[in-house]
Amino acid sequence: MIEKTQAIVLRTVPNGNTSRIVTWLTRDHGRIATIIKGAQRPRSLFLGQLDLFYTCELLYYTRSRGDLHIARECSPAKIRAHLRHDWRACALASYATDLALRIAPPQAPQWRVYRWLEAVLDDVNQPGSSSSLMIWHELKLLTELGLAPRLNHCMNCHTAFGEAATALHFSHERGGLLCASCAKADSRPAYPVPADVVAMLRNWQRPNASPDLIRRTRCEPRQLALLERMLGEFLRYHLDLPLPSRDLALAINKR
Ligand SMILES: [Zn+2]
Fold it and tell me: Based on the structure, what is the number of domains in the chain?
C-alpha cells in the first residue's frame, strides 16, 4: 500500500552508512517511522527535503509487518527557517516535538495533537516567542486532550469562584483549584495561587485567546515562575511523563 499525507519531522537518526530513520507525526495516521534508504548519498532525492520541525508532503509504502515503513518521496511544505537562527525558539520547538512524540501512540490517528504541534511550531517560528507562549500552548494541549485545569469551582465542595475569589489553592492531583478549607483538609499537595495568576490563566483558557494576546501579556517573573510550576506538575502528573526537554527549554528561555 502507498500512503500520502502531511507530516511533521519529530526525529531523524542515521541508520547504517547511508540510510536514515525518520519519525513523523502525520496528519492522517498518527506517529509513524520510515526508513529513507540512501538518504545520505550525494544524489539522494531526499537531500534538503526534510529536517527537524519541517512539515512535509510525504509519500510512503506501508509495511504490513513491523512498524518501519519505507519513504518514497517527500517535499517540504513549511521549513520554518527562523528556528535555524533563534536557539531559544529552537529549544521550545524541541520541547513541543518531544511532547508530541511521547503522547502520540504509534500508528493511531492523532489529529488534535497534529493540529496542536503545527500551531506551536508556526508560533515559535515567529520572532518574540517566550516561555509564556509555550505555557499557553500547554494549556491548549490539555484542553484538546480534555484535561484542562478546572479554575471556576472548588474541585472538592464545588463552590463557584467568582472573579474576585481569593485564598484559592491549586492541586495538580485534584485537577484544579480548591477553596482554602478544602485545601487544608486534603491530604494531597496544594499551594496558594494569587488572584492575578488565576485571572491570567482564565484569560488564557478562553477559546478566543490568541498568540498575540499572550505576546502582549506582561508576565512578571514571580507570575511566570508560578505558572511554570503549576503547568509542569500538572502535565507530568496527568500525562505521566518526565519531560526533561521542558526544563531545558524553559531554562534557556529565562531572561
Ligand atoms: Zn471547597
Answer: 2
Cα 241 to ligand 1 centre (Å): 29
Q: Rounded mean pLDDT of 35-43?
A: 88
pLDDT in tens, 59-74: 999 988 878 999 999 9
Joined together, the cell numbers standing for residue 254 give 529565562
In a domain, 111, yes or no: yes
Distance of CA 225 from the midpoint of ligand 1 (Å): 25
Say how many Å lie between the CA of residue 51 and the centre of ligand 1: 50
Does a structural domain hold residue 25?
yes
Looking at the domain assignment, is residue 125 inside a domain?
no
The model's pTM = 0.94
**119 alpha carbon – ligand 1 mean position (Å):** 36
Burial 108-145 (b: 16+ CB within 10 A, else e): eebeebbebbbebbebbbeeebbbbbbbbbbbbbbeee
Q: Tell me: pLDDT of 255 over 70.
A: no
